[in-house]
Queue: 4 jobs
Job 1
Amino acid sequence: MLEVSGASGGYGPIQVIHDLSVSVDKAELVALVGSNGAGKTTLLRAISGLQPLTGGEIRLDGEPIGHLPAHLRVARGLAHVPEGRQVFGPLSVEDNLRLGAYLNRSDNVSRKRDRVFDLFPALAEKRRAAAGSLSGGQQQMLAIGRALMSSPRVLMLDEPSMGLAPNLVDTILDTVGQLARDGMAILLVEQNAVAALRIAARGYVIETGRITQADNSGALLRDERLRAAYLGE
Ligand SMILES: Nc1ncnc2c1ncn2[C@@H]1O[C@H](COP(=O)(O)OP(=O)(O)OP(=O)(O)O)[C@@H](O)[C@H]1O
Ligand SMILES: [Mg+2]
């Protein structure tokens, strides 16, 4: 579904990601784990078209999309929940969701919104509240909900567990797992390697802009070196 091969890029003359190759199938949840500054956000932003690559190729359903502007990648079925949530604070929950559907014809919007409220009942109760008044966990739910409003086939999430209490991390990651079981291809970026690998089928480890390990999640969770480096054991 999503295939990134040989992606390289960075900021001006500074190369941050080096020849990265990552793929995600339909109904597959893949984790990309790595420590602070490894290049995870840079890769997701490049896949979304928010910043350029200097080399490599991105395919969605076999079609190259690397030349398309970000909004056309969304229209092809690629959605991105950015790091730090970035909801529109003064706008209501419902209006934030509506903005996520800006590319869609209006007749589907309320059905999609109801689907988001089914997934996250806490949001339904707050539908008219300003997004900025929500708790961190609810804002993360809203950020995911907004991405779902574009009816993505591929969903990329950038550290959705960041700053959340453990029970909320579980709630959000359970829902992410459910979306994959329902058929979505999901690329989950996390510093929280244990939580991410527990729900993922496969994982990649990224260190200073390079993939250093790629395996099924069980094998990564058992790997001694990974445990020492990332799992705090
Ligand atoms: N706008 C920018 N300009 C210059 N360098 C940047 C910029 N954003 C990130 N970097 C650098 O690129 C490298 C990778 O950053 P990136 O944000 O992709 O890492 P990350 O894996 O997402 O880290 P974190 O887990 O902290 O979010 C870091 O060395 C960072 O300092
Ligand atoms: Mg990041």
Note: The mean pLDDT is 93.
Job 2
Amino acid sequence: MDQQPEPLADRVSDAVALLVGKHTVRCPQPGCRVSVRYRAVTPDEAKRLTDLATDHTRH
Ligand SMILES: [Zn+2]
């Protein structure tokens, strides 16, 4: 979609991502590559996904 290689385009994409509530949550455990990406979800769903991504005992 957004294939413009300009740094400014990346910055704009980041800004848009913030505006639409797009997030990537990574597991804090060393060596664990689990991450959860979401956007435009309800606060409850965001919390659930964040918990899932950051609580290593649950995945
Ligand atoms: Zn993990």
Note: DSSP finds two helices and two strands in the chain.
Job 3
Amino acid sequence: MPCCGDYGVLVDERAVVRELTRTASPPLVPEVRLRLAEEPFATWTATRADDPPFWAFAWAGGQVLARYVLDHPDVVAGRRVADIASGSGLVAIAAALAGAAHVTAFDVDPLARTAATENAALNDVVVEVVQADVTRTPGLHEALQTADVVLAGDVCYDPDMAPPMLAALRACAARGAKVLVGDPHRPYLPRGLASIAEYDVPETGNLEERDTTRAAVFVLRN
Ligand SMILES: C[S@@+](CC[C@H](N)C(=O)[O-])C[C@H]1O[C@@H](n2cnc3c(N)ncnc32)[C@H](O)[C@@H]1O
């Protein structure tokens, strides 16, 4: 199925993901295997897609959230979990490994949907993967409306995206879901959120251009 305009040889989404990545583990989450790229800009050029290949990297916010969930399985065990802006699917996979009853991963990017599907299979877990814009209301997917736990890794990197994303997350919190956000203290993260865990994330994928990135798991309330 063509997916990337004039992509040329790589016209199949799964072929794109496999061709541009290799199997590796994020440094903070060695128990999870993902299809990961080594460098963002060359990878983006190769996709010829409009959107950057977020799905080819394990972002610091996602890594800390996955680490937290794996170290505190009681947060998700037996619960319905949604991972929004799931990228590679790292956080969703961690939730499934930690014993969630059902996990749905949402991302707006079709290549992220493919990557998360591939990565769930790599880790032998079941994750429902949905391509959707989670900021679109009304019409939020049922799995997002009914999730007991909503997880979001690294969703405050863009000044236009952060406010609607946070509004969608706060709507989940308002109806009673537990909402956890993993974030490396990006400028568009609201100040004053309660941090429940902090980690130093070793650099991977030349994303942050420093050896380690301090990132935290925050509780978001409505
Ligand atoms: C920085 S990446 C984080 C990926 C993953 N959570 C992680 O931490 O590794 C942000 C992701 O948000 C997705 N995204 C951006 N806007 C979105 C929206 N409105 N609805 C769903 N996903 C969105 C992007 O496609 C991208 O995969």
Note: The radius of gyration is 16 Å.
Job 4
Amino acid sequence: MDNVIIKTKGIKRAFDTPAGKFWALKGIDAEIPEGKFVILRGRSGSGKTTYMNIINSLDDPTEGDVFIDGVNLKDLSEKERENLRRTKMGFVFQSVSLIPSLNAFQNVEFSMRMAGMKINKDTARRVEECLKLVGLGNRMNHMSAEMSGGEQQRVAIARALAHKPSIIFADEPTAELDSAMAARVTEIFKEMTRKEGITVLMTTHDVGLMGAADMMIELDNGERINAGE
Ligand SMILES: Nc1ncnc2c1ncn2[C@@H]1O[C@H](COP(=O)(O)OP(=O)(O)OP(=O)(O)O)[C@@H](O)[C@H]1O
Ligand SMILES: [Mg+2]
């Protein structure tokens, strides 16, 4: 049995609204094995982002537990959680937010600095390796304004990857890309699980991308509607 890197038990999340309590998540259980490419799918408003942000500890559940590598997030201090996010997790968002005054290489290197790594020849090699993995070995000195949306998103993936996180969280990373580039980006995520043993959790609406997943978690109206893979 593979090592379970993410486990959630009975995750519920209520938001206070003028109309009363709104339960965005109604008790989500999941076990995600290490090194898998996992797609979190469901209609708009089904609870994907809410669930993802509870797993990565940016938000707290109203009820339920999240275990990362067997550790209950409730047992960690805010400082320990921040450290977990900085060193063990990588993030890719729908809108790319590269630093415009830095080139591709420097954007990736900067993220390693933020993860607390000392910048040296080894980190430079790692930056190159990550940019090559996303197919941008020949764009390292380009500024973000000189790159297409798909290229920028691939720099963002290299950036999320450079400090060797255990888990990458990608919330709708392909939403602003054309279908060919969306498929390419999805393929890169899958390659990362194979080459680096990283676990990737990606949300998407795009049914065309589902085939690439090792495992699918489908939400509907705050509930999980598939229990299998
Ligand atoms: N801070 C909040 N306060 C009140 N309701 C919220 C809050 N955040 C999310 N919700 C509600 O919870 C539900 C789930 O939202 P969530 O953002 O998780 O959906 P999603 O599946 O990511 O949707 P999308 O595909 O559009 O990104 C929605 O009905 C949303 O309106
Ligand atoms: Mg969302």
Note: The chain has a mean pLDDT of 93.
